[in-house]
Amino acid sequence: MSAILTFWHKEWLAAWRNYHILILAVIFVIFGIEAPLMAKLMPDLMKLALGDQFSIKLPQSTSSDSWQQFYKNTSQIGIFLLALVFSGTVSQEVSSGTLVNLITKGLPRYAVIIAKYLAAVVQWVVAIGVSFIITWGYTAYYFPDDKSPHVWLAIWPVLLFGLFFVAVVLLGSTVVNSNYAGFLVAALVFASLALLNYVKAVKRWNPIALVTDNLDLVRGTEKITHILPACGVTVAAALVILGVTIWTFNQKRL
């Protein structure tokens, strides 16, 4: 445990010096502000864009539109930003040789992977949490309606998906000695899960449901029990992938 904590401290210093924390903070704060603002301004923007010739009356924006934008940002940009930021977290250190002295002095190899995993997960949870709270506050102010009764329920699957996605990024960065390997592997896995979602028999078990069915949870048109199988698969897959990553790193020549 002490070895993990030691390397954990090193990871946070590196994240600060490499501006990873700042990048995630700025982007996700923008997400939090942008989602309700876009929902609020969209009807007016459409009128300006189409001019007087547009005679169809647009429906008023609701809180549901704000949350739709939030989860769109999270699943289409935020999750890939996470992968990009941590893409070279292992391969970069292996290439530069910075781990050799630490390993030869007795640092267990598993401590490296676990510390990196936990540091990335915490940054993901904090970034999403801050963005969510900002979105919730502005949405409640702009749209005081009853269109989104379960806003707090829908965020947990996103956080859970992050546990899986970080594990995938780490595995890619460990297997391939490239600074973009983690991102490419994660993008490939995400695309594969998206395609797999078209198979009706496995849809409820597909981890991607955790970042695609959130709006239904917010609106109350779908219950959390609908994606519980996907939650179980996601946690199990994250643990297996993390284990494979540790085993691969143990075999890797530094």
Automatic annotation (TrEMBL):
Record lineage: Bacteria, Bacillati, Bacillota, Bacilli, Lactobacillales
Pfam family, one: ABC2_membrane_2
Record keywords, A-Z: Membrane, Transmembrane, Transmembrane helix
Domain of life of the native organism: Bacteria
Transmembrane stretches, start-end: 20-39, 117-139, 151-173, 180-199, 227-249
Protein name: ABC transporter permease
